[in-house]
Amino acid sequence: MTVKFSLKAAPTFKKPVELPIHGGDSAVVVVEFKHRTRTALDEWIKEIQGKTDAEVLAGCVVGWDLDDKAEAENFELLCQNYAGAGHAISQAYTDEIVQARRKN
What is the pTM of this model? Predict the structure, then answer.
């Protein structure tokens, strides 16, 4: 599939993210992220030092395909119940922004 390219990026983008769940399984959640320029991403990475996973998610996630709304209370609930989820989502976000996993 060919996508029309534009120098101005869309304000958000969606990415399927594999979240680890108990018992060795995983679930895929489509997460909608806030776009940032490279400079804005560098600044944001400095700002999130010392913040909780839920606070980090609040700064980059704008939606997801779960029944529960993507909001601070639910980010905290997710991170409390699934300890690896916050890291998986934030890592997927930064990887997608810098395009670290592009296929050749």
Answer: 0.89
- For position 54, what pLDDT does the model report? 97
Find out whether 66 and 30 touch, Cβ atoms under 8 Å: no
CA dist., res. 90 & res. 15, Å (int): 11
Structural domains of the chain ordered from first start = 12-98 (3.30.2220)
| The pair of three-digit structure tokens given for residue 85, joined into one six-digit string | 């989820």
In angstroms, the Cα distances linking 35 to 25, 78, 82 are 29, 22, 25
Q: How far apart are CA 62 and CA 77, in angstroms?
A: 16
In a 13 Å sphere around the CA of 66, the CA atoms on its Cβ side amount to 19
